[in-house]
Specification:
alpha+beta, six-stranded antiparallel sheet, globular, five-stranded antiparallel sheet
């Protein structure tokens, strides 16, 4: 029987990684996130064990149980990369695959952020990929506009999360990065939904900090493609 891992009272079956797969994981994880003094990289490395569990869970969830090869993954192998806009859908009533993290927000208003074409409704991930969400990062200067977020993954609805402190740049590099509780989203299984609350009106440029783990055939796409669910 596969080993199991529990997160928020949900069990995930974990596939084994052989010594070669573990070597790819150990050697490549830090390479995805900046220089040695990067706050983003530090957050990633602090949650290394969670990320390893996510890789094993996604490998188990994909029927072919693909061999893990990290950033060198071929089409039918398992790889990982930072979460890109094209790995999410935008909550504007269209539910289209994103091509940018930019998102219009209105002051003192909750609005769909990660959403299907139906308001207040999440979307299934492509069956070729899963995600581990670890935090948020904003590229808006001089300060981010959004201030609270609420996630739902499957039947689990998290409490609203206040990340206004992101504006303080309260880390050694003074950057707009803020950690969140670790969240797993499995391939074509649980619907992912998130809405944002903003203190100011404008165009936010808020990104998910984390990893997309999936088949090389999916991760290699440079533009949005039709998802398979």
């Amino acid at each position: 029987m596969p080993e199991k891992f529990s997160l928020y009272e949900k069990d995930y079956e974990l596939a084994d990684l052989d010594s070669t797969e573990m070597a790819f994981f150990e050697q490549q994880l830090a390479l995805l996130f900046g220089t040695v003094d990067s706050v983003e990289r530090q957050l990633i490395m602090e949650r290394k064990n969670w990320i390893l569990a996510a890789v094993r869970a996604v490998k188990q969830a994909i029927p072919s149980h693909p061999t893990f090869r990290g950033i060198y993954a071929e089409d039918t192998e398992l790889g990982f990369t930072v979460i890109r806009p094209v790995h999410t859908k935008r909550g504007d009533g269209v539910g289209a695959i994103r091509d940018t993290w930019e998102h219009a927000v209105t002051a003192e208003t909750w609005a769909d952020w990660l959403c299907s074409s139906t308001a207040n409704t999440g979307y299934l991930l492509d069956k070729r990929m899963g995600q581990i969400i670890l935090g948020l990062k904003s590229f808006v200067s001089p300060e981010p506009l959004a201030s609270e977020v609420q996630f739902s993954i499957g039947r689990t609805k998290f409490l609203p999360y206040d990340f206004r402190s992101i504006r303080l740049g309260d880390n050694k590099n003074g950057v707009a990065i803020y950690p969140l509780p670790t969240m797993f989203v499995m391939p074509s299984t649980d619907e992912l939904f998130a809405d944002l609350y903003a203190d100011k009106t404008g165009t936010e440029n808020l990104a998910l900090l984390g990893l997309t783990i999936g088949l090389g055939a999916f991760l290699k796409n440079t533009t949005s493609v039709t998802w398979q669910t």
